[in-house]
Amino acid sequence: MKKKVVVGMSGGVDSSVAAYLLKEQGYDVIGVTMQIWQEEEPEQVEENGGCCGLSAVEDAEKVARILEIPYYVMNFKKEFQEQVIDYFVAEYLAGRTPNPCIACNRYVKWEALLRRSMALGADYIATGHYARVEQMKNGRFAVRNSVTAGKDQTYALYNLTQFQLAHTLMPVGDYTKEEIRKLAKENNLPVAQKPDSQDICFVPDGNYAGFLKKQAPDKMPGEGNFVSETGQVLGTHKGITHYTIGQRKGLGLSMGHPVFVSELRPETNEVVISSHDVFQTELTCNQINFMGMEDLKEPRRLWAKVRYAHKGQWCAAEQIGEDRIRCSFEEPVRAVTPGQAVVFYDGEYVMGGGTIM
């Protein structure tokens, strides 16, 4: 009997080819687009584009017809609002810099979709991520780097559980982007040359502060002081939600030399400015998710990434509490940002990660 897999189809080339590959491999494939955007007006939905827009549904539906697979649109607005948007707003208001894609992957694209898919009798869910799922020698499932380093998406997947990984397929991880587009073209999929979606899907214009003001107009912090590390007032800022650690441009400060945001203080509504670029050799993280390793009872040398685009750095990782890991880097790392994730690797495999404190 064929194994049944629900493919999350965003209307892009990667998830479309994922559906094609799984059908070729003999799976019983069902295509699903997750409706997550909150606005009801068609022009507003379309404006938000990416994996949320109306064109996503139209494109995914066309691909499903060509592949001759069943296709559905499922409503996940409630889960997306609670697990992604509410979290995104709360983190910024608390002076941290959130990573909504990580939250969306864990709680919406996996937890919610997998639950509904299994209720339909599916054995697996699948996505178009550039990553691979493998079971390691120790029996644990882990996400492994894709074959193409330039498109690797493992960082944003570190928070998946063992149960989720055991029921996940990621066929695109075995290919380069060029190979995926070639497969789409050869099989007459209309999304072969569709551009990749950029930025956060629900803030397509990149105006985070404007989005936050719309979501939480009564809670937005107003203007406050830029201060030096010694407490000297340097000027007035627009509100802490406009800034992030390591930011240099757009500060509006004429200091005569480059300055950087080194700290956000929500309790006093202050943005701390440093004359030195922000490097540090240590961080602590919590909200730990172990993946390729079961625990960290003994200190371990691991490769760590502190943001999606970070190339990574060797560190000594040590558990210092029930939900605390201290990470000591061998070389200083720039712009370690509270709210972002630190993800630990052993070779090509994700060992786990946590939220930077």
Describe the structure.
- The strands form four sheets. Strands 12-15-14-13-16-17 form a six-stranded antiparallel barrel. Strands 3-2-1-4-7 form a five-stranded parallel β-sheet, sandwiched between helices. Strands 9-8-11-10 form a four-stranded mixed β-sheet, with no helix packed on it.
- It has about 350 residues and is an alpha/beta fold.
- Helix content is about 25%, strand content about 30%.
- It is globular, with a radius of gyration of 21 Å.
- Residues about 45-50 have low confidence and may be disordered.
- Strand 1, helix 1 (about 15-25) and strand 2 form a beta-alpha-beta unit.
- It has helices at about 15-25, 40-45, 55-65, 75-95, 100-120, 160-165, 175-185, 210-215; strands at about 5-10, 30-35, 70-75, 125, 130-135, 140-145, 170, 225-230, 235, 260-265, 270-275, 280-290, 300-305, 315-320, 325-335, 340-345, 350-355.
- The chain is built from eight helices and 17 strands.
Write out key terms for the chains shown.
five-stranded parallel beta sheet, 8 helices, six-stranded antiparallel β-barrel, globular, alpha/beta, single chain, 357 residues
Terminal CA distance reads: 48 Å
Low-confidence stretches: 44-49
Multimer state: single chain
Give the biggest sheet. 6 strands, antiparallel, barrel
Strand content: 25-35%
Q: Based on DSSP secondary structure assignment, what is the total number of beta strands?
A: 17
Q: What would you report as the Rg, rounded to the nearest angstrom?
A: 21 Å
Percentage of residues in helical conformation: 25-40%
Total DSSP helices: 8
Strand order of the largest sheet: 12-15-14-13-16-17
Let me know the average pLDDT: 92
Q: What structural category characterises the helix and strand content?
A: alpha/beta
The best one-word shape is: globular
Order of helices and strands: EHEHHEHHEEEHEHHEEEEEEEEEE
